[in-house]
């Protein structure tokens, strides 16, 4: 047995073993579980937590971000807040070779520490981040444009849950084989053949995580922690407009790594200057063997085609689709869909875009509703949620970037608005860019319009010949362009089954008859899969065995016993 | 719940559940286990089994192979036996679109049958193949050039073990999540949120298996059965010189599928005519989503670069390396290495090629041995095994194709032969092409020679400055060119540890101090991993979680409970 290769778990493993084992149970049951409370209430987090977190966030503004890592001598500041708040945080700005060299040097000791020690350290990083959850939430809010509660939940608690989920899957995968095994085979009349075999978990190399603007933590944490816990040093390349949440993440990760006796360069921040194309340089670096990316289809496709030395995980654009056939709760359906369209101004990769309704209308608990009545019902629900500016902005947040505003303008030319987008003045933050959702009416033949993603508070009500026609459109558009979510409303079991069959064919997750407090754009860690890897919107799911299994290899050695 | 999607396992699942569960235990323990006896003895298989199998094999020769599948109207015959036996079997010759269309049409019912039913059917296919193991062994022998016992073991029993191993991994992966789960989340003062979630295992699409000349079954079965059991129809494209073993496989697979009530087009044979490039056409077909390939580095690299619509698993060439530092059993070491070099005339992807020995010689139980004495010891062991033609051919088998003969000629020009290759006349099969191994002496600076694969009975003894130098060569050449096996001989624990560290860095499996009945070129299913996916010789291991996890996706549907 090699010195240092037999695992004596780090004390941090013992500290977090219960959490790990609860998470391991959760991923096999896939019922409800969460490790990190999603309520920002002082009853949960303490009286001063919110103010302390806000103060910590504000202390970063206008200064050099405290990170002792390569590139600290050079600085870059690229963020603009959708809420109109000056950020001006200056981050270390390492070169690609510099950051990859530092990461590579940190690899061997981390690899040799073994799965249990790595899990212990990673769970301690999550605990440390959880302790700073309000600081993280403020950073997510002011870079992404999410309203505070959403930033706290999606950007804090749920992101940590998804990280823990990824760690649990990776631990299960790394330990499905024993570290050593005896092998004994009968050999005729002689002594049996006896061997001792050792199975080493070996990382692939340096991992790169390319963050997005809208969900800098939630979309980055699964890949970051799946790669790190399997032994790969991670270079985090944030979106230029959402650096701070990942800088905070890297800061506390490095703090824990150093405390645990490891090289903090196992996690490095690599922000890019405008026009620098650092993401591409890093993605093509020969030492980079894993890339996780969330963002545009164009760049995701480029990564898949060009970063051939790496295993590439992408989440890209899609056409999230709703098929409405009938409902026994028309008000609940409209309220539910209205909330989905309003939340974060529809700037979620899971927000429904294409709502397919039979032109002849639908049967409901309120009697037959015409196509226009269904559209008006959804529009009214959005209208109600956004009528009061103070309440509206706590749901919509702010518009993440100018691209969304341009699409809001462009969409006015493609069809009749059932609901027009309005500008809302944020009561507390007058420079915040706030828009309410628009809903535009289209014909089923308008595939040139609804056949591409209109990211932002833009959705379409599309008149179909029938529910079957709607399912056919779901099947063809999602099959071709992908989707992260699909939904169906029907009181007819046969229609629900047909929708499920269409979803299976198109490779998209389906939600049926959501009328209450569960929304199609939300997925719960440990239970719901996010993305499927079975349609063009994403080449992997968060989080399953396939998401973690290729992040490491087993290297075996055998000796006569 | 969708009609037909809830699994009521097929009776074949019950029939084979014990085998499945024993295999599931084996893959978590990775000790010794085998499901299919490797001895062709009549005591195991019955008095008439060998003769019946030979007769069944001979009945195929010179005729139309009995396969009722697309392409049966056209026929192709491309095989030439290394043993000089006329084969002339004519196989159905479908076009790419034809075979992919047939496979695609068979997919939905197989997908919807669920994991347990698919496992039951696949294990019945293995049982059926096992019943015809002598027929398979003859087909493997006379197409690959393996001697009979090896063809029976590697091409029959061990191939079936590897198939079962892949099925067990796939089953574990498909069922790590439940088929359905309840989800209940507290919601303040109101009723909890309750959802019912269904998780469907969904295949990727049509799978393509591209077989090789030397191990038509052993190298094809893991991919074939991993893809099939996860719901993907499989198109089997055999090597033009080794069609029969896979034709027999497809025949019995189709027989079982039809008996079990499934479309036999779930498994199809697609042999190619000379120059047709059917493998490439199939590999680029948009409906083909998985490709398994064993063969040359050039073609494997081409597949990885071009079959972008598919997940591609490749096993390619490499530089299998031995580092000799010292031994306490010089005779055993020479005997063990001599056997490895002789078996199947070194035509295994796992046969050692580069044997690195300090120029100053090594310490042994027989005192110090000079470099030349070590080389002579290995050469003598080969000589002893090959001295008697009748015994020799039962180890060496025959030379698989002219490329090997050309390399045997070429290698005479690159260095001094410690052992020259000899032509052996097969006592029973006078047209068999039989050659004994050659061993050529090189300097460590001859990287242009030993830095590429010389597939066949060709190995090099290479003089190094020291053991450390040898390990450095292992690290660099295997890191750059890949390897499927590595071995070390040393009495010094520090050297064994250093070799293990080098193997981990290079990403290659290591065998230490093999002097008895375990050989570096042999890997045992359920215990040894074959290939690692961590060096250029293969992008995946046979068989682990990563090998199966990407062959299917989970599609979820959720409804309020």
Radius of gyration of chain A equals 25 Å
Q: How many domains of chain A?
A: 2
Amino- and carboxy-terminal Cα gap of chain A? 12 Å
How would you name the oligomeric state of the polypeptide chains in this document? homodimer
Structural class of chain A: alpha/beta
Mean pLDDT of chain A: 96
What is the CATH class of the largest domain in chain A?
Alpha Beta
List low-confidence stretches of chain A: 1-5
CATH architecture of the largest domain in chain A: 3-Layer(aba) Sandwich
Q: Indicate the percent of residues in helices of chain A.
A: 40-55%
* Biggest chain pair interface: A-B, 72 and 72 residues
Task: Give the full name of the CATH homologous superfamily of the largest domain in chain A.
Answer: Aldehyde Dehydrogenase, Chain A, domain 1
Number of strands of chain A: 22
| Outline of chain A | globular
With strands numbered from the N-terminus, the spatial order across the biggest sheet of chain A is: 15-18-19-12-10-20-21
Largest sheet of chain A: 7 strands, mixed
How much of the sequence of chain A is in beta strands?
15-25%
């Amino acid at each position: 047995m090699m010195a240092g290769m037999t695992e004596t778990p780090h004390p941090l493993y013992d500290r977090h073993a219960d959490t790990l084992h609860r998470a391991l149970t959760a991923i096999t049951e896939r019922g409800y579980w969460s490790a990190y409370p999603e309520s920002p209430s002082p009853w949960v987090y303490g009286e001063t937590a919110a103010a302390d977190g806000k103060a910590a966030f504000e202390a970063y503004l206008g200064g050099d971000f405290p990170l002792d890592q390569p590139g600290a001598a050079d600085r870059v500041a690229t963020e603009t807040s959708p809420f109109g708040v000056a950020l001006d945080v200056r981050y270390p700005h390492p070169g690609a070779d510099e950051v990859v060299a530092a990461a590579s040097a940190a690899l061997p000791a981390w690899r040799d520490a073994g799965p249990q020690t790595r899990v212990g350290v990673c769970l301690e990083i999550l605990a440390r981040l959880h302790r700073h959850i309000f600081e993280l939430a403020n950073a997510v809010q002011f870079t992404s444009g999410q309203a505070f509660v959403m930033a706290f939940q999606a950007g804090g608690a749920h992101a940590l849950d998804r990280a823990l989920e990824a760690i649990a899957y990776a631990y299960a995968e790394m330990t499905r084989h024993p570290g050593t095994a005896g092998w004994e085979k009968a050999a005729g009349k002689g002594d049996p053949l006896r061997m001792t075999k050792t199975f080493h978990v070996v990382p692939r190399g340096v991992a790169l995580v390319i963050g997005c603007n809208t969900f800098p933590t939630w979309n980055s944490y699964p890949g970051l922690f799946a790669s790190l816990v399997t032994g790969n040093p991670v270079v985090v390349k944030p979106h230029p407009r959402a650096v701070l949440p990942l800088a905070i993440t890297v800061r506390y990760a490095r703090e824990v790594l150093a405390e645990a006796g490891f090289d903090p360069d196992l996690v490095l921040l690599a922000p890019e200057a405008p026009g620098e194309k650092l993401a591409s340089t890093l993605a093509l670096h020969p030492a980079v063997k894993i890339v996780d990316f969330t963002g545009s289809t164009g760049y995701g496709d480029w990564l898949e085609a060009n970063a051939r030395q790496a295993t590439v995980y992408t989440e890209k654009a899609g056409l999230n689709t709703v098929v409405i056939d009938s409902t026994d709760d028309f008000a609940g359906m409209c309220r539910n869909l209205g909330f989905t369209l309003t939340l974060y101004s529809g700037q979620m990769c899971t927000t429904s875009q294409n709502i397919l309704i039979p032109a002849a209308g639908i049967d409901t608990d309120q009697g037959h509703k015409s196509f226009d009545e269904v559209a008006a019902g959804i529009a009214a629900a959005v209208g109600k949620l956004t009528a009061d500016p103070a309440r509206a902005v706590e749901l919509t947040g702010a518009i993440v970037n100018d691209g969304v505003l341009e699409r809001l303008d462009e969409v006015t030319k493609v069809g009749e608005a059932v609901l027009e987008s309005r500008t809302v003045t944020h009561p507390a933050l007058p420079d915040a860019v706030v828009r309410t959702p628009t809903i535009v009416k289209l014909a089923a033949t308008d595939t040139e319009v609804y056949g591409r993603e209109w990211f932002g508070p833009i959705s379409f009500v599309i008149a179909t010949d029938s529910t079957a026609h709607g399912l056919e459109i779901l099947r063809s558009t999602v099959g071709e362009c992908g989707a992260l979510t699909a939904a169906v409303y029907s009181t007819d079991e046969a229609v629900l089954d047909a929708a499920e069959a269409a979803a299976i064919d198109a490779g998209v997750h389906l939600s049926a008859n959501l009328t209450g407090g569960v929304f199609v754009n939300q997925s719960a860690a440990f239970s719901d899969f996010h993305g499927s890897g079975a349609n063009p919107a994403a080449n992997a799911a968060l989080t399953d065995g396939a998401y973690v299994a290729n992040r490491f290899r087993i290297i075996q050695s055998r000796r006569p016993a």
